């Protein structure tokens, strides 16, 4: 550590991306008000994510399948989960997502101000997820209201509120799985039903395991997809050249461009670990049992790896950490990538131009959330 270590990265009211850009050149590691050690540099974040022995994922007192598990327990559940998120398993949903996206953008009013996060990203995320998991469309308003409250609770840092909101989500999940677990016929054949009938170690998954898996697939994802849509639209609205390139690009290039925009402005800020022994990382001694945060947003902008952070999808793809690295690397990457590409292509097909709303600039999210809170745009 070269300099005095700032003791507050919670940075209430600040844009985390800008703040970590300021800190990173002088401080590889900072401590926040919660006493967590926050890793800011690419090399350290990647090293900790790859070091599963010394950086454990068992950070929560709640059951978190698979993200809160280590070792063999993690591998067993991970293998089960990956079956639902493979290319073959997801391919049948591509036309479904295309239909959801086309219907959504067709209904968006032209020539008036819309918010890309709540009017486009959140609605698309909820509809696509309900279709994928086989959840009833009637849940849409409840899930949208939940997403808003979840964001507000996370921003507030109020733990009682955050855990109350988490419990509300678990109730939604239980309302979906209970009838599916009780049904002994094959009337329903959707992803959630299949998961309810799936086995680990030769036995059915328990209700808490099912709730945890589905919470991870939806709770985490809905917010991230909505925030990613906000980031993408905010960038496109000020880069007509990129819009023109995307209109001509094949799917693989669109996906690479999305990854690179998200690298530069990663709204999925961080994940936690706990040290199993004393470690030295980024030149800093961290004791055993310490809470550590891997800050992906900062690592993804580290000058030591990305130089001046020039937009370059091809060059930066191998070191991009938007979906993590190591055993816990995001198993939902393909689903997220396809959903984002399909949403973006539908938007570009339906709108001739996407412009920022006059006199109403995008509003950044503030710590501990990344990306944008609102992105007011006008489509023509
Ligand atoms: C744009 C959207 C998304 C982003 C940026 C994202 C990012 C990440 C990252 C960085 C991790 C690593 C966590 C760690 O190392 O502790 C992760 C893990 C995970 N993600 Fe995603 N994710 C996204 C969407 C999704 C989707 C759509 C799903 C599933 C439906 C999903 C399911 C998971 C699960 C289950 C884990 C935990 C994996 C494990 O512990 O083995 N994610 N995600």
Secondary structure layout:
Elements: H1 16-23, E1 29-31, E2 37-39, H2 42-50, E3 55-56, H3 71-84, H4 87-90, H5 94-106, E4 113-115, H6 116-133, H7 140-156, H8 159-182, H9 191-196, E5 199-200, E6 203-204, H10 207-237, H11 240-248, H12 251-264, E7 270-275, E8 279-281, E9 284-286, E10 291-295, H13 296-299, H14 303-306, H15 313-316, H16 333-350, E11 354-356, E12 363-364, E13 372-374, E14 376-379
Parallel strand pairs: 2-10
Antiparallel strand pairs: 1-2, 3-7, 4-14, 5-6, 7-10, 8-9, 11-14, 12-13
Bound molecules: protoporphyrin IX containing FE (HEM).
Structural notes for this entry:
A hairpin with a 7-residue loop joins strand 12 and strand 13. It is globular, with a radius of gyration of 21 Å. It is 52% helix and 12% strand. With 380 residues, it is of the alpha+beta class. It has helices at 16-23, 42-50, 71-84, 87-90, 94-106, 116-133, 140-156, 159-182, 191-196, 207-237, 240-248, 251-264, 296-299, 303-306, 313-316, 333-350, and strands spanning 29-31, 37-39, 55-56, 113-115, 199-200, 203-204, 270-275, 279-281, 284-286, 291-295, 354-356, 363-364, 372-374, 376-379. Bound molecules: protoporphyrin IX containing FE. Residues 49, 57, 66-67, 78, 81, 216-217, 220-221, 224-225, 228, 268, 271, 296, 322-324, 328-332, 335-336 line the site of protoporphyrin IX containing FE (HEM).
């Amino acid at each position: 550590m070269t300099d005095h270590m700032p003791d507050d990265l919670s940075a209430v009211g600040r844009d985390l991306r800008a703040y970590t850009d300021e800190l990173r050149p002088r401080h590889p590691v900072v401590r926040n008000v919660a006493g967590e050690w926050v890793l800011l540099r690419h090399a350290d974040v990647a090293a900790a994510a790859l070091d599963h022995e010394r950086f454990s994922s068992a950070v929560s007192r709640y059951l978190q399948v698979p993200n809160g598990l280590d070792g063999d327990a993690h591998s067993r559940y991970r293998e089960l989960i990956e079956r639902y998120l493979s290319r073959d398993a997801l391919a049948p949903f591509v036309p479904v997502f295309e239909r959801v996206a086309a219907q959504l953008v067709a209904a968006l009013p032209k020539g008036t101000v819309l918010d890309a996060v709540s009017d486009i990203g959140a609605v698309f995320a909820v509809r696509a997820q309900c279709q994928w998991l086989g959840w009833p469309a009637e849940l849409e308003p409840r899930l949208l209201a939940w997403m808003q409250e979840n964001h507000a609770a996370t921003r507030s840092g109020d733990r009682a509120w955050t855990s109350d909101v988490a419990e509300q989500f678990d109730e939604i999940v239980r309302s979906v799985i209970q009838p599916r677990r009780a049904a002994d016929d094959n009337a329903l054949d959707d992803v959630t039903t299949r998961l309810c009938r799936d086995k680990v170690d030769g036995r059915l998954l328990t209700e808490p395991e099912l709730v945890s898996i589905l919470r991870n697939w939806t709770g985490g994802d809905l917010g991230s997809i909505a925030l990613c849509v906000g980031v993408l639209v905010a960038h496109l609205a000020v880069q007509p050249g990129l819009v023109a390139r995307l209109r001509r690009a094949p799917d693989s290039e669109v996906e690479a461009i999305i990854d690179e925009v998200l690298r530069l402005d990663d709204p999925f800020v961080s994940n936690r670990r706990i040290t199993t022994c004393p470690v030295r990382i980024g030149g800093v001694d961290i004791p055993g049992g310490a809470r550590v945060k891997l800050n992906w947003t900062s690592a993804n902008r580290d000058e030591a790896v990305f130089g001046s952070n020039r937009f370059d999808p091809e060059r930066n793809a191998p070191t991009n950490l938007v979906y993590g690295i190591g055993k816990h690397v995001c198993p939902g990457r393909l689903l997220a990538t396809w959903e984002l590409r399909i949403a973006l292509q539908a938007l570009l097909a339906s709108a001739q131009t996407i412009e920022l709303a006059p006199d109403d600039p995008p509003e950044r999210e503030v710590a501990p959330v990344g990306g944008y809170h609102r992105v007011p745009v006008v489509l023509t």
